[in-house]
Design brief:
The chain has about 190 residues and is an alpha/beta fold. The protein has a single domain, classed as Roll (Nuclear Transport Factor 2, Chain: A), CATH 3.10.450. Helix content is about 35%, strand content about 25%. Strands 1-3-4-5-6-2 form a 6-stranded mixed β-sheet, covered by helices on one side. Helix 3 crosses helix 4. The relative contact order is 0.19. Keywords: Signal. This is Phosphoribosyl-AMP cyclohydrolase.
């Protein structure tokens, strides 16, 4: 079970301050129409959706080739990541040199499916025959409209081989209620040579 930290739940505010803040909000005409506070359940659902999408890209590649996988990967990037909203910090597991960090949508799509001449080192991480993804959070930090998770993600391919990575994600919930990835850091676990 992951530790869940929510700093807002540990803050206390005197009732008179709460009423004053509410009165100021109402007086200034600010609408409190949509709650953008992110929940643990939303974070877990976003992680599951990411894993399911990785498996779908792999299956689409096997059943329909690279064009089908690329269309799926592009749709996944557009719905799961926040590239269209603002900056995204993405450090894939198997990227190096000048292309270690993927701050653009194009770079993210290339990492998942390859085939982009601007990223010649990409061979399509999502095309490796993935069949299952398991997320084991070490911790989840909830903070208003953002949440950060850290833990292990294990991916199983069609031969049953398991690959585990250390993963940190930061999710942001927008004013429409969509939870999107704004930080994604992935690395292979440290292997001590001693």
């Amino acid at each position: 079970m992951a530790a869940v930290f929510n700093p807002a739940s540990s803050l206390t505010m005197r009732p008179s301050i709460k009423l004053a803040a509410l009165a100021l909000s109402l007086a200034s005409g600010l609408a409190l129409a949509h709650d953008v506070t992110i929940s643990e359940a939303e974070v877990l659902a976003a992680q599951k959706a990411w894993g399911d999408a990785l498996v779908k890209i792999a299956r689409d590649y096997e059943e329909g080739g690279l064009n089908r996988a690329k269309a799926t990967a592009t749709a996944v990037i557009d719905s799961a990541y926040a590239y269209q909203v603002g900056p995204v910090l993405f450090k894939p597991t198997m990227a190096s040199g000048d292309q270690t960090f993927r701050t653009t949508r194009q770079g993210a799509v290339s990492y998942f499916v390859g085939g982009d001449p601007a990223y010649p080192g990409d061979h399509g991480f999502a095309l490796k025959g993935w069949r299952a993804v398991e997320v084991r959070n070490a911790g989840i930090l909830l903070n208003g409209d953002t949440a950060t998770t850290m833990g292990h993600v294990t991916m199983t391919d069609k031969s049953g081989k398991r690959t585990t990575v250390d993963k940190t994600w930061t999710f942001k919930k927008d004013d429409k209620g969509q939870v999107r990835i704004v930080v994604h850091h992935s690395s292979l676990p440290f292997a001590d040579a001693h």
